Amino acid sequence: MDKKVGWFILTLIGIAAGTFGSLLGLGGGIILVPALFYLSNFIPGVPEITPQLAIGTSLMLIIITALSSSISYAKQKLIDVSSAFLFFIGSAPGAIIGAWLSSFFDKDSFNLYYGIFMLFMLVLLSYRSKLAIGKENRWKTTKTYTDVSGQVYTYGYSKPVAISIALVVGILSSVFGIGGGALLVPFLLVMFRFPPHVAAATSMFVILLSSLVGSITHITLDHIVWSAVIAIAPGAWIGGLLGSRLSRKLSGKWLERILRFVLLLIAVRMLWQGLL
User: Fold this and answer.
1) Which of 11, 55, 108, 141 has the maximal Cβ count within 10 Å?
2) How far apart are CA 203 and CA 148, in angstroms?
3) For position 266, what pLDDT does the model report?
4) Distance CA 274, CA 269 (A)
């Protein structure tokens, strides 16, 4: 394949990952990680992608998407900064632990565990209204937010619980190279009742901070394909801006519907690959 065509494909992957990652607060890793596994088949000059290389490279690119979208979300005043830094207290050490744990995965087990993890998040999000969690009387910190349609949201958390969840998020984000949003956003929606737009924006800021920490560890472990980073980064930056701007045009219910659909697609794809 012609080198220019290969770079064009990489740029499109970056735009797609950045847009969906920013729109839903996922970071883009759920698209980047599966895509990176197949780059060596059609992109000249890229080595065979192992789980470790896919994870490390994905996290580097997630930094680009998260920075781009966080700047845009900050202008829209959608980021709950104090909550984001609280979650970062737990996610930072988790990211370091996860980067080390990622060394123990082979490709088949990685796909299988990744798919099971996504399926669990889908079920949790789909049935959150029936779960006896996320009740206001359990929160020590309570906040309110009014969206553009006038709907008022009440959300909050207990700080020890929030930090503990963030630790798990940090570990899994670094293990799976997904930036943590695929786990953090459902938890923000289910347990803490965050408004969907605030959940996506706050998640992206947490992802930016935790991905910086996790990427440093992956760099020391030589888990980065720098040629792929250079090729995909422009698309990831553009996608981050597109996703944050597109979110303003969608209601909270539509954001949740899109999130559930994306989680289902990724879960089915990774489970199929893992079982085969």
Assistant:
1) 55
2) 20
3) 73
4) 9
Band (pLDDT 50/70/90 cuts) for residue 34 is confident
Which residue would you say has higher pLDDT here, 108 or 200? 200
Find out whether 39 and 259 touch, Cβ atoms under 8 Å: no
Contact 98, 175 (CB under 8 A): yes
Q: Which amino acid is at 55?
A: I
Closest CA to 201 of 93, 60, 38, 69: 69
Q: How far apart are the C-alpha atoms of 177 and 169, rounded to whole Å?
A: 11
pLDDT tens digits for range 119-133: 877 777 676 656 545
Radius of gyration of the chain (CA): 18
> What string of DSSP letters covers the chain?
--HHHHHHHHHHHHHHHHHHHHHHTS-SHHHHHHHHHTHHHHSTTPPPPPHHHHHHHHHHHHHHHHHHHHHHHHHTT---HHHHHHHHHHHHHHHHHHHHHGGG--HHHHHHHHHHHHHHHHHHHHTGGGSS---GGG-SEEEEEE-TT--EEEEEE-HHHHHHHHHHHHHHHHHHTSTTHHHHHHHHHHTS---HHHHHHHHHHHHHHHHHHHHHHHHHTT---HHHHHHHHHHHHHHHHHHHHHHTTS-HHHHHHHHHHHHHHHHHHHHHHHH-
Answer for the pair 224, 56: CB distance below 8 angstroms, yes or no.
yes
The one-letter amino acid code at 43 reads I
Nearest to 232 by CA among 101, 46, 96: 46
Tokens for 4, please give them.
């220019």
What percent of the chain stands above pLDDT 90? 10
Q: How many CB atoms lie within 10 A of CB 40?
A: 17
